[in-house]
Amino acid sequence: MLFPEQGMEADGTYEQGFVGIRFCQECNNMLYPKEDKENRILLYACRNCDYQQEADNSCIYVNKITHEVDELTQIIADVSQDPTLPRTEDHPCAKCGHKEAVFFQSHSARAEVHIKLHFSFTTLLGFILCWVTAHVYR
């Protein structure tokens, strides 16, 4: 048995990369991945009883990391105080008109970010940070 039903396709199979929690059919405790070295297969085994089942997928863990451009606003306080970042007075802040700004760049591999911001896949997303209001603009 797998929990939760997230990631389940209409035919009852799970999408590639989905790893669910499996439960013992005898005592309902969680099943843990275990290697059968003799047969060279992956099993899920109960630590409470002797129940085991063969894994239908060799993936036991998925770690998906996505970064949003909006996450940059969480590091603004540190960025504005960083003396190693380049500064400019050529791009005044759109909110307050303050002239001194801090440059920083963010790489993005997500296609929807590039499309939304009208950048090609090879460009960097360039941002400028107002020193006074911490307003991020490009």
UniProtKB/TrEMBL annotation:
Q: Does the record's keyword annotation contain Metal-binding?
A: yes
Single GO term (MF): metal ion binding
The UniProt entry, under CDD domains, shows: Zn-ribbon_RPB9
Database matches in SUPFAM superfamilies: Zinc beta-ribbon (SSF57783)
Keyword Chaperone included in the entry's annotation: no
Do you know which InterPro entries this protein is assigned to? DNA-dir_RNA_pol-M_15_CS, Rpa12/Rpb9/Rpc10/TFS, Zn_ribbon_RPB9, Zn_ribbon_RPB9_C
PROSITE patterns linked to this entry: RNA_POL_M_15KD
Record GO biological process: maintenance of transcriptional fidelity during transcription elongation by RNA polymerase II; transcription initiation at RNA polymerase II promoter; transcription-coupled nucleotide-excision repair
Keyword set for this entry?
DNA-directed RNA polymerase, Metal-binding, Nucleus, Transcription, Zinc
- DNA-directed RNA polymerase II subunit RPB9-like zinc ribbon domain residues are 22-75
Q: Which is one Gene Ontology cellular component term of this protein?
A: RNA polymerase II, core complex
Q: Tell me its family.
A: Belongs to the archaeal RpoM/eukaryotic RPA12/RPB9/RPC11 RNA polymerase family.
The name this protein carries in UniProt is DNA-directed RNA polymerase II subunit RPB9-like zinc ribbon domain-containing protein
From which source organism is this entry? Engystomops pustulosus (Tungara frog)
Q: What is the lineage of its organism?
A: Eukaryota, Metazoa, Chordata, Craniata, Vertebrata
